[in-house]
């Protein structure tokens, strides 16, 4: 995987850390060091030349993985940016728009600053070096090692084990939320969070959306203005860009805005397990008079191999079944694109929050609409004493303190970073990606009036399923033929909970494709069986509960594949990184024939 690496103490070289990452033969490593401190970035090189930077000067080492999309507008040199982070990181970081993860090692002051962008578009993991703390948290530390993958940090733990609470998060939400990782003792930075190491270690959220909402009057115009600027900023950071069509209305709106800006672009349609949006992408390309490609399957590449690559790219921090277009994105994608631009309008994000009343609980609403498994089911699967609802409370506690609706919307954005945005690591293994992480856009989206979140759909409305009303209002203002092109299955009513959308209710289909594949594909079935048998015996899982889940899968009684994907990914990652036995650690999916 492309990504950043570094440390402020110790003797591990950047090349050694990079060797522990997933590699493609075209990757290039850029690094810098000063004394015991070192930083680096593993990147696509000429495939995405405008992304990533390593900077050294004035006793400071800096690295950005991704792009600071508004740096030109702010008139910041890289020296100004890293010196600002070293001297006053909160104020400087609050001005920056992503998508990025960054690190700044100030060798003058013996301090380290790590940060994620406001949307949490890229993972950033860290492990204290020489930690003198205990169960209550970190104490004084000698330094910190950090990376955008867990692999380089496994060696920092004397006895690496799975984190029970993180495993519970993975099963409850389909992704590990908050500051934990599947590797106990290694932390993760949520969106808009900075970590400072200076004798001790502390984390802080440096930016959050405003608590108050916005008036409905004029809101669509404000949203569209912020969206235009955010999309223009990321578009200018990619010379050769392709618009990704996952089958939702947001991509079509992005295409309309890019057309207004006369930005040359190609379209690439993703046929996910929910159907994809090939027709819309083709019609958009016709309007652009630019090339369009529909993703293609490689009959020589098996799903098992793709799953293995997806788990490696995401460190099992998200259920692999959430990754669109496997096995294409793990192998064929780099032949069709250099940089993928995601529309990321998120006009249907947390539409359910519009119905939250003043006396309702943000935590209850988040659990109801964003969980993919019931908490009781998760408790049964865990042998450890870890309450999965603790994760819900922790996410809400880290969210904006305001009316329940605002808190819930902000919390849902953190869940999105841990799930949907984390799956994009699989794409970044093949191409560059651009996710919208503009502070003004995220603030405006979070403060959307309830009247624009929920409503009814006029029979004549051509826009997707017509929910929420903001989507119709934006399309009307664009006034483009592109904006009224109907969307495919992904444009359906998005007010359902993630549990319903993932197939936990009768009639849902998201997990059905993998369940059918399990029933008909011998190699895939042996692969899943082997991993479920293994994870059943691994702490902190309950062997009987995992075996019961396995039996339900074999009997074709599971309505969602999400827990199977989460558990098989966890076992595959653990075998490679945690098992003492060399033979077991070296086992890979491709050996399951």
Automatic annotation (TrEMBL):
Domain spans labelled Glutamine amidotransferase type-2: 89-129
SUPFAM superfamilies in the record: Adenine nucleotide alpha hydrolases-like, N-terminal nucleophile aminohydrolases (Ntn hydrolases)
This protein's UniProt keywords: Transferase
GO molecular function terms noted in the UniProt entry: transferase activity
Disordered: region residues: 484-510
Gene3D superfamilies listed in its UniProt record: Glutamine Phosphoribosylpyrophosphate, subunit 1, domain 1
The protein's name in its UniProt record: Gln-dependent amino transferase
Organism: Halosimplex carlsbadense 2-9-1
């Amino acid at each position: 995987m492309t990504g950043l690496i570094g440390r402020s103490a110790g003797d591990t070289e950047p090349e050694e850390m990079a060797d522990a990452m997933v590699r493609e033969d075209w990757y290039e490593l850029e690094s810098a060091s000063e004394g015991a401190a070192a930083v680096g970035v593993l990147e696509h090189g000429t495939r995405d030349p405008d992304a990533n930077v390593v900077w050294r000067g004035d006793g400071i080492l800096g690295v950005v993985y991704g792009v600071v999309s508004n740096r030109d507008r702010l008139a910041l040199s890289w020296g100004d940016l890293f010196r600002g982070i070293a001297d006053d990181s909160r104020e400087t970081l609050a001005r920056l728009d992503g998508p990025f993860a960054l690190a700044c090692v100030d060798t003058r002051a013996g301090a380290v600053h790590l940060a994620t962008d406001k949307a949490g578009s890229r993972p950033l993991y860290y492990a204290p070096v020489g930690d003198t703390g205990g169960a209550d948290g970190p104490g004084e530390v000698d330094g910190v090692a950090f990376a955008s993958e867990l692999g380089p940090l496994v060696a920092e733990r004397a006895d690496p084990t799975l984190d029970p609470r993180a495993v519970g998060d993975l099963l409850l939400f389909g992704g590990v939320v908050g500051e934990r990782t599947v590797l106990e003792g290694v932390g993760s930075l949520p969106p808009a969070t900075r970590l400072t190491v200076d004798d001790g270690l502390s984390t802080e959220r440096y930016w959050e959306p405003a608590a108050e909402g916005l008036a409905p009057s004029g809101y669509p115009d404000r949203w569209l203005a912020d969206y235009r600027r955010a999309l223009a900023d990321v578009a200018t950071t990619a010379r050769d860009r392709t618009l990704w069509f996952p089958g939702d209305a947001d991509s079509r709106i992005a295409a309309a805005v890019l057309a207004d800006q006369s930005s040359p672009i190609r379209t690439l349609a993703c046929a996910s397990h929910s159907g994809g949006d090939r027709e819309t992408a083709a019609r958009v390309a016709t309007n652009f008079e630019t090339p369009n490609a529909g993703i293609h399957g490689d009959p020589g590449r098996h799903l098992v191999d793709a799953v293995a690559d997806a788990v490696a790219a995401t460190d099992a921090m998200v259920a692999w079944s959430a990754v669109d277009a496997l096995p294409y994105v793990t192998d064929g994608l780099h032949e069709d694109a250099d940089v993928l631009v995601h529309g990321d309008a998120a006009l249907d994000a947390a539409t359910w929050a519009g119905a939250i009343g003043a006396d309702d609980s943000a935590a209850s609403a988040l659990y109801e609409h964003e969980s993919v498994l019931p908490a009781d089911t998760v408790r049964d699967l865990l042998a450890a004493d870890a309450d999965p609802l603790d994760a819900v409370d922790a996410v809400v506690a880290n969210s904006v303190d305001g009316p329940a609706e605002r808190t819930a919307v902000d919390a849902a954005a953190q869940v999105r970073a841990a799930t949907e945005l984390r799956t994009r690591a699989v794409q970044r293994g093949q191409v560059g990606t651009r996710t919208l992480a503009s502070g003004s856009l995220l603030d405006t989206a979070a403060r959307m009036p309830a009247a624009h979140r929920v409503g009814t759909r006029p029979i004549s409305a051509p826009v997707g399923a017509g929910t929420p009303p903001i989507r119709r209002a934006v399309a009307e203002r664009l006034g483009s033929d592109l904006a009224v092109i109907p969307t495919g299955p992904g444009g359906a009513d998005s007010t359902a909970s993630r549990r319903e959308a993932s197939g936990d209710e009768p009639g849902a289909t998201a997990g059905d494709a993998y369940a059918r594949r399990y029933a008909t594909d011998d190699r895939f079935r042996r692969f899943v069986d082997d991993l479920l048998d293994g994870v059943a015996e691994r702490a902190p899982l309950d062997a009987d509960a995992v075996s019961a889940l396995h039996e339900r899968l074999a009997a074709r009684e599971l309505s969602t594949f999400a827990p199977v994907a989460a558990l098989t990914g966890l076992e595959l990652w653990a075998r490679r990184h945690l098992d003492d036995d060399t033979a077991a650690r070296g086992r890979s999916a491709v050996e399951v024939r």
